[in-house]
Specification:
Length: about 500
């Protein structure tokens, strides 16, 4: 029982009428089934929630009731052996021994790739059945691989690509590739001389190469149904082990923006009939992809002819989904009056605060989460070789040194204002931003601040705040869930072909 020197708190104690004079740590016994090959390493997560009869117990900021998450790192764990997880040590939201009396159920996951914070439970992870709290629990099966990807070899419009970047390979000291899909329009093979406007599309947080394959198929369908004009779409995978790299040049993730603009785009334009000029290269993305495309347009205004970014992550760090990172004694957990900053909402109801979201992520692991991903993209590198944290995960206090680094390198509103005399002539009229007034993550706030900065510069930027739309239903208009996407595609095509219907 390690250094705690306490006995296992029995399940019945949670139901006891009289609480013990001093709370004891609650340990959960977790074993690996002896028939699994092993040994295994990773982050062992145990999810506990009130109730019984659930088919799955998992954490989510959208859940109706809170889920306890207890964690422990394990190495070379052999099948048939038991490990104790201290549910009062590394745990969210509070020590499990303080839970109110109730029936509780649990499920264990071994996150072997440390990817839970990004994609959730993934192929290769070990999983237990749901069991009542207080009994031993066994990791009895391995989550299988996803069904074989659809065979795209016969789809003449979808072209997967894997490109080895010299710049990224040099940065990491190992071969580093850029992946994605090129989607060509229906008439691409009919006229061997025709060229097409090209859109570089970037997915949001949680997306990856496998998941955007479905998006490629959707683009083919929309083009065939003539819902969108005939253009070439390049679907870029911006996922990485630390979350999303946002196509920013970073001291932690490497020169992704440079690799895209100086290596990948010339390679693609040499192999596909693209317009290959600024007014035929466009950017489009949502959420983290929205920030990435906004960043690329601002950083490389001579290369791209416009971005249509939707619900981008904070583009003005005076409003980092609520907190002002530059305020004296800034704190992302608490406002000056002590009230918590909300972070997730739905239909006017706060589902999770900034503190709840960040603390749960920290328990689930140090890699791949949204807050950790921001540090990997925006922060300077610390003496330990890791990115410095912008805020303290326990107290919420902002590190002013790190916040200043964020401002000087990645605050889009600040950088546009500071460099307008240089970039303005090439950037004017090229920014198009859409966001809902009820955005789930309060991203309409920083969009208003960016709009004010661009208006003061006469940047001819186009902002659309869609009433009552959230992060997840922004694209819905009268003709279906993707109506806004169709509209954006038509606007881009009209920019590239102003005299063509």
């Amino acid at each position: 029982m390690r250094h705690f020197g306490v006995l296992l708190l029995a399940f019945a104690s949670l139901h006891a009428q009289t609480a013990p004079p001093e709370k004891q740590h609650l340990f959960i016994h977790v074993a690996i089934a002896p028939d699994l090959p092993g040994p295994y390493s990773g982050r062992l997560l145990v999810f506990v929630t009130a109730g019984k009869g659930a088919k799955e117990v998992d954490a989510s900021p959208f859940a109706n009731s809170p889920t306890y998450v207890a964690a422990r790192e394990v190495e070379n764990w052999k099948p048939g052996t038991v490990i104790d997880v201290d549910a009062d040590d590394v745990v969210y939201p509070e020590p499990l021994s303080t839970a109110k009396p109730s029936d509780y159920q649990m499920q264990a996951v071994l996150d072997v790739g440390h990817t839970y914070n990004y994609v959730g439970r993934a192929p290769g992870d070990l999983l237990s059945d749901v069991a009542a709290l207080g009994r031993g629990i066994t990791l009895s099966r391995v989550i299988p691989n996803h069904p074989n990807p659809r065979d795209l070899t016969n789809d003449k419009n979808i072209h997967p690509f894997t490109f080895t970047s010299k710049a990224l390979t040099q940065f990491w000291g190992r071969e580093t590739v850029m992946r994605g899909y090129v989607v060509t329009p229906p008439s691409y093979t009919q006229n061997a001389k025709a060229k097409f406007p090209t859109v570089y599309w970037v997915h949001g947080f949680g997306g990856n190469y496998e998941r955007i394959e479905r998006t490629a198929e959707d683009f083919v369908k929309r083009s065939a149904e003539k819902k969108i004009p005939e253009m070439i779409w390049v679907l870029l995978d911006e996922s990485c082990p630390t979350g999303t790299h946002e196509f920013a040049d970073s001291v932690n993730n490497g020169p992704w923006g440079r690799a895209l603009t100086t290596e990948l785009i010339p390679y693609l334009e040499g192999n596909y009939r693209m317009d290959a000029k600024p007014n035929g290269r466009f950017l489009q993305g949502h959420s983290s992809g929205g920030w990435a495309t906004l960043w690329l347009q601002v950083t490389y205004p001579k290369i791209f002819g416009g971005t249509w970014s939707t619900s981008p992550d904070s583009s003005d760090f005076h409003d980092f989904t609520g907190p002002d990172l530059y305020a004296p004694h800034a704190n992302v957990y608490r406002k000056r009056d002590g009230t918590p900053y909300p972070l997730v909402r739905d239909k006017g109801k706060v589902l999770a605060t900034f503190e709840q979201y960040a603390r749960e992520e920290a328990v689930a692991g140090t890699y791949g989460g949204q807050m950790a991903s921001f540090d990997w993209v925006f922060s300077p590198r610390g003496q330990d070789g890791k990115p410095m944290q912008m805020f303290n995960r326990i107290t919420g206090e902002v590190d002013p040194f790190v916040a200043a680094y964020w401002r000087d390198h990645y605050d889009i509103a600040h950088l546009v204002a500071a460099n307008w005399n240089t970039i303005g002539p090439d950037l004017k009229g090229k920014i198009h931003l859409f966001v809902g007034t009820a955005d789930t993550f309060y991203l309409d706030g920083p969009a208003h601040k960016l709009q004010a900065v661009l208006a003061s510069l006469n940047a001819d930027a186009h902002f659309t705040f869609i009433p009552d739309r959230t992060h997840f239903d922004l694209y819905k208009v009268a003709d279906g869930t993707g109506g806004l996407f169709n509209q954006i595609a038509q606007e881009m095509y009209a920019t590239a072909r102003p005299n063509k219907k």
